[in-house]
Amino acid sequence: MKENRLRFSEDWVVVIAGFILIFAILFGLKVDSPTYKWASWSELVGKVLSAGNLVKMVWQCLQVTVVGIVAMILLGKPWRSFVQGFILIFVLSVLAQVMAGNALVQEYNLEAVIFSLLIGLVINNFFGVPQILRDSMQSELFVKIGLVMLGTTIIFGDILKAGALGLVQALVVVLSVWYFAFWLCKRMKIDKEMSLMISSAVSICGVSAAIATSGAIKGDGKKLSYVISLVLITAVPMMIFMPYIAEYFNLSQAVTGAWLGGSIDTTGAVVASGSLVGEEALEISTIIKFSQNVLLGLAAFAISVYWSVTQAKEKEERPTLGVIWDRFPKFVIGFLAASLLFSFVLSPESVANYKGGIKSLQGVWFSLAFVSIGLETNFKQLFAQENKKPLVAFLGAQTFNVIITLIMALILFS
User: Fold this and answer.
1) What is the pLDDT of residues 210-256, one digit of tens each?
2) What does the alpha-carbon distance between residue 118 and residue 121 come to, in Å, rounded to a whole number?
3) What is the 3-state secondary structure (H, E, C) of 359-414?
4) What is the band of 81 on the pLDDT scale with cuts at 50, 70, 90?
5) pTM for the whole thing?
6) Measuring CA to CA, how many Å separate 369 from each of 234, 274, 346, 391?
7) Alpha-carbon torsion (89, 109, 160, 292), positive or negative
8) Dihedral of alpha carbons 209, 314, 222, 194, sign
9) CA pair distance 245, 242, nearest whole angstrom
């Protein structure tokens, strides 16, 4: 019994692990982010696979491995068997980032997490998962550490940069689209976990919102994989065709930018699409997307409270503050604390200096998580018959998102 009392719950461990890395970077830990961008085989060999870049990968692997060991010790789990498989999962995540770094892939804005998921799925479904990897497939742990670090990118000052019009559009679109998507999922009798992930992904900021929501409700990784796949797949045609639709209807650059920024779910796709239209469209689309991204922290907190109360009621417990606290996902506290630290304590210059290294390691944790989710997921489960309803609900919510965002853009930016 005494040994059990010394163990930490996973929710607190991810907060500790995330802040170990954040404070290590703030106090001087050097994070040399490897480059994964390449356009030709010669560039792949000469730049990505160069000795200097490989050293950066090894250094990054060492950093996350040490934090992973600390997490295992705090959880009271054997760390030696964890390390062997963890390094292999890291290698697979690097392969995913190399695939995502290809110039052609970058044009279509396919993110590393989708390749991480695909690699895990291929190994699991065609070759089987080796025993050495099984103790290291800690997808929920990896996702939540990444989410705590993601909090450093949610800067409240970005709300002020967006201006009143950008903030009004972001609030109206996020709230209306979220409630419509949730209502639609409920009408289609989709379970609450999937409904919450779809609603957040469509209305707020795509992949990050889906991951944050899944963490807040302790969601099923397979459902999260499915939602993220939908986000990334639908972002590509939207990114390509929406600028041409705007041109056909002679929409101004300001209106087009507000439309793109409010309806396309990934930041990279927003930037790429805005660039096709012009400088003003790019600037406004980026501002609108920033406004929605900033709302992620508030949304994660609200969803966490809602889920804690709902779970308490379902188990016939009185939803007192104590019960809500017990069920509340503690990583959200770490997420918000990181956001407050970088928004109000550190200077903008310090934030600019540190954010690159933190974002790089955050991306590593997400990539590790999705390799693990792929290793745990069966193709038949991912594309099962029951997943057709979520697909229809997602597309219906996305259509509503495109329409309501266009209306708001015309009202506010004409």
Assistant:
1) 888 888 887 888 888 888 888 877 887 888 889 889 988 999 998 99
2) 5
3) HHHHHHHHHHHHHHHHHHCCHHHHCCHHHHHHHHHHHHHHHHHHHHHHHHHHHHHC
4) confident
5) 0.77
6) 22, 30, 29, 23
7) negative
8) negative
9) 5
